[in-house]
Amino acid sequence: MLRDFRSYERLELTLEPSLVLVHGPNGAGKTNLLEALHVGTQGFSPRARSDAQMIRFGTRASRVVVGGTNGKTRFRAEVGLAAGEPKRATFNGALLRSAEGLRHELRTLVFTPDRLAVVKGAPATRRAYLDRAVGRFFPARASLPVEYAAAVGQRNAALRRLAAGLSSAEALVPWTEAVATLGEELVRARAESVELLARPFASVTGTLGLAGASVAYDATAPALADFEARLARDVERGLTGIGPHLHDVELRAEDRELRSFASQGEQRVAVLSLVLAEAQALAARTGVTPLVLLDDVLSELDEDRRFALAGVIAGLGQTVITATHASALPVEPAQSLAVSSGTIQRA
Ligand SMILES: Nc1ncnc2c1ncn2[C@@H]1O[C@H](COP(=O)(O)OP(=O)(O)O)[C@@H](O)[C@H]1O
Ligand SMILES: [Mg+2]
Fold first, then answer.
1. How many angstroms separate the CA atoms of 249 and 129, rounded?
2. CB of 286 within 8 A of CB of 109?
3. 3-state class of 238 per DSSP?
4. pLDDT digits (tens, 9 = 90+) for 276-331
5. pTM here?
6. pLDDT (tens digit, 9 = 90+) per residue, 10-39?
7. What is the DSSP letter of 53?
């Protein structure tokens, strides 16, 4: 159920627990609807937008309320946005410390065309993606990437103090130890996450017609001796030059690196497969299927792949998929919603 969604005066919507198709012309509001579902379940927009951009133009505040079942447990999440104020979120009536804290309560996976950057973008994009997956697979370790980044920041600051003659090499030691310890934990968490993704990723990419695809994270965390060995260079640059903040996730098809060699269509299949593979892995691990939001994925896939995709989706929990035409989905959805100029109708 969704209320007070910004593009609509007041919208109440009940979505079927399985496959929901949202269709309508360009600019109708389909992505807005998915965005609202993401905001309402994760506390932030999957688009790179500021919170203010999510408030309906000409108004000062918006609210998304989502109720449903997570596994067998009923929940109610509410996210409020007001101009110039921090976001506010409650889960089952309890105020969360931050709206993003909803991520620890509910899992929502999203594919949007700008996610192609996960394949074709810089390593930092893949690291960020993997680190969010770490948080979804292992909630207790969700803060690890942030803690590690903070330790690297502290160590870099200490390196610069050392270079400026403001402190001794001993003062650096605790920061190096923190970076080494947290780095090792982060590498382990990432490797375990990729291990959970690897098999479903190979299977889903195969189903979607990308042969021999694999995801790998072949990394080892540097030991204290490695930091020692390159101390002079680190001091000179004022930067920690080794560690998981520089690692990459390898996405390949046979022996080709998808980042450099995949066509646009293959990149799309790879990113989509990562999302679907994670959904399968999360379901297998936690027994709870995540909410899956697939935006603008059908138009770029040929008939065979659309059919294959429908087959994969059928094995998941609740999926909301958008298309400009209802006919783009080659199977009958549980529910079909027609969107035009910001209004939604059951088709
Ligand atoms: N905060 C907002 N308030 C009102 N309208 C908005 C807001 N943000 C985006 N829009 C409008 O929503 C429309 C795009 O909707 P979108 O969901 O992206 O369409 P599509 O159906 O193509 O996915 C645009 O016309 C845009 O101006
Ligand atoms: Mg759209």
1. 10
2. no
3. coil
4. 999 999 999 999 999 999 999 998 899 999 999 999 999 999 999 999 999 999 99
5. 0.94
6. 778 899 999 999 999 999 999 999 999 999
7. G
Sorted by where each starts, the structural domains of the chain and their CATH numbers stand as 1-107+288-347 (3.40.50.300), 121-263 (1.20.1050.90)
The contacts of residue 80 (CB under 8 Å, 6+ apart) are 61, 62, 63, 87, 88, 89
Query: Rounded mean pLDDT of 235-253?
Result: 97
Q: Which of 277, 251, 264 is nearest to 125 (CA)?
A: 251
Radius of gyration of the chain (CA): 22
Kindly report the protein residue whose alpha carbon is nearest to atom 20 of ligand 1: 27
- Probe residue for ligand 1, chosen from 32, 47, 321, 339 as the CB with the greatest number of ligand atoms within 8 Å: 32
Helix-, strand-, coil-residue percentages of the chain, each rounded to 5: 50, 20, 35
Q: Tokens 């292992």 correspond to what residue?
A: 138
CB-CB neighbours of 63 under 10 Å? 18
Q: Tell me which H or E stretch contains 31.
A: helix 30-42
**Tokens coding 271:** 């990113």
- CA–CA gap between residue 283 and residue 149 (Å, rounded): 29
CA distance 333 to 337: 10
For the record, the structure tokens of 104 come out as 């620890």
Count CA within 13 A, CB hemisphere, residue 297.
35
pLDDT in tens, 188-202: 999 999 999 999 999
Ligand 1 center to residue 115 CA distance, Å? 19
Around ion ligand 2, residues with a beta carbon closer than 5 Å are 30-31
Strand partners, 67: 76
Cα–Cα distances (Å) from 258 to 42, 163, 191, 239, 241, in that order, read 29, 40, 20, 30, 26
